[in-house]
Amino acid sequence: MTKSLDVIAIGNALVDVLSHADDAFLAGHKIPKGSMSLIDAAMAEKLYATMGPAVEISGGSAANSIAGIASLGGKAGFIGKVAKDQLGQIFRHDITSLGVEFTTAPAAQGGKPTGRCLVFVTPDAQRTMQTFLGSAGDVGPDDIDAEQIKRAQITYLEGYLWDTPLAKKAYIKAAEIAHKAKRKTALTLSDKFCVDRHRADFIDLVHGHIDILFANEQEIIALYEARNFDAAVEAVRGKCEIAVLTRSEKGAVIVTKSDTVTVKAQPCAKIVDTTGAGDLFAAGFLFGLTRKLPMAECGRIAAICAAEIISHVGARPEVSLAKLAGLS
Amino acid sequence: MTKSLDVIAIGNALVDVLSHADDAFLAGHKIPKGSMSLIDAAMAEKLYATMGPAVEISGGSAANSIAGIASLGGKAGFIGKVAKDQLGQIFRHDITSLGVEFTTAPAAQGGKPTGRCLVFVTPDAQRTMQTFLGSAGDVGPDDIDAEQIKRAQITYLEGYLWDTPLAKKAYIKAAEIAHKAKRKTALTLSDKFCVDRHRADFIDLVHGHIDILFANEQEIIALYEARNFDAAVEAVRGKCEIAVLTRSEKGAVIVTKSDTVTVKAQPCAKIVDTTGAGDLFAAGFLFGLTRKLPMAECGRIAAICAAEIISHVGARPEVSLAKLAGLS
């Protein structure tokens, strides 16, 4: 394949298992609300047994962003590892049916199953995630195809994969290839708890390898151990080319060395499930960048994408985002 | 287990694979809109490859009804065959997490995979289904536990399973056990096309083995090859104890030997996906019967259940139907 790509992402290839739960369920299992934690196969099985009826939808943070870019009309690729099982088939079907290039070899038969993320949606529409990585955690440097990275305007990395050493090596390799080819790199910090686990590493990564950083308010404050959001904004300014800082219903702030652009949140009639809000905000913003749009317009598209995803269960768009954003 | 059951159902153990499609997609594949057809593994694979991104949710007509009865607070059981694979685990988890008794042995390893129903939801909220039965079609007389049937007030049968001869035998066996134990039997005709395939058999079944019949307008007209709905009402009157005839937004008509009770449809702000409307209407009605409620009240609960299911994607309730119907 020689076609150019707008964005290629490396991330956890996961199927989300979404169900409704109340705060008491989370408290009973000692799971902090709003967090993402990694769990092993045994814990996943135990937790699933106590979980209510669920819906399975392809997920994974960066993969959700890539689905969003495809829905906006962008040319996208994904690098991640599924197993040769039914959940792996589901993940592969869903992402390729959007026209996304997904050529990573699946894990060898008989090994770990395809990863899944147990998502508990509380009545306040917050999501709490317990992830069994399975084969997703085995993405490594060998899965990085230099030619594919070079074909993409932006290589997008998901902070969650920092939890697995092999994936970390894959990221650094991809970022270095991208930069040598004069391409851009982008990263989402993914989760406050993920930042807490990898603060020093993330600072090195952001300051050394990343052009475009996505973080929400809690994550950017955690990264710099800042006393408040404004302090975090000044801490990140100039450390990477663009920092896109999301603040839920307060919209977002785009920080460059010399500018600060404020983006309003889009109205959403009823917030059903916030799973994927950050992923789709990133999708919209990155798509805008690949089209050389002004920052404020990138932010507007991003906010529209995020508003669509929180209006229903699941982190993959249910309508054409290109139409929704008035781009087609 | 010796606990009594309100309803036990025999049906196809299927996982729904739901996606949005337009009329052109159906026309291109020569699939009649609103129908359910059986397809083989090869066709399922081919069709899935052309299908857009999907959501996986446990389904199966009678299984959806049973999930509804459990959500209403009823004690329910299900008989159906899954395989020992990931989709089978999903089906088992979802139904047992509702407290439903599901003890049917899974199919032997290495055989057919768990069945799935590819559901295409068109912009008019209609659903068109292409079902690969897989292991679901292998439910047979050996899966009928006489003691379990005797413990249930009502044994509920899904017409769709009439497409497989082994399942038909299982049905007749279960109906005979139920009647010998002075229990009631219920049947849904499932689908106009299913009625066309099995008209004579269904008439024998309804007139000989069934106490409570569920059918929509098209199905009951097809069963008696009647000239219109009113003629079909008179054709079915007295042939079984209760005939529950649903008419979408026109509500439903409950027909007994001496009475005709009209039930209004419940308002639904936005009809998103009609998958499962009939299944959940049956759930509400059967639940009411097990509580010895008057026909009109059974119909009211039924209409509330149907309105909930068409307000979202998927055929399993997303909220407590007991709360919604003011029963808890």
User: Tell me, what is the CATH class of chain A?
Assistant: Alpha Beta
Q: How many distinct helices of chain A?
A: 13
Chain pair forming the biggest interface: A-B, 27 and 27 residues
Helix-strand category of chain A: alpha/beta
CATH fold field value of chain A: UDP-N-acetylmuramoyl-L-alanine:D-glutamate ligase
Low-confidence regions of chain A: none
The average pLDDT value of chain A, as a whole number, equals 95
Euclidean distance between termini CA atoms of chain A? 26 Å
Give the SSE layout:
Two copies of one chain form a homodimer.
Chain A: E1 5-10, E2 14-20, H1 23-28, E3 36-38, H2 41-50, E4 55-58, H3 61-71, E5 76-79, H4 86-96, E6 115-121, E7 127-132, H5 146-150, E8 152-158, H6 165-180, E9 184-188, H7 192-197, H8 199-209, E10 212-216, H9 217-224, H10 229-236, E11 242-246, E12 252-256, E13 260-263, H11 277-290, H12 295-309, H13 321-324
Parallel strand pairs in A: 1-5, 1-8, 2-6, 3-7, 8-9, 9-10, 10-11
Antiparallel strand pairs in A: 2-4, 6-7, 11-12, 12-13
Give a concise summary.
Two copies of one chain form a homodimer. Chain A contains 13 helices and 13 strands.
Could you name the key traits of this structure?
homodimer; 328 residues; alpha/beta; UDP-N-acetylmuramoyl-L-alanine:D-glutamate ligase; eight-stranded mixed sheet; five-stranded mixed sheet; 13 helices; 21% strand
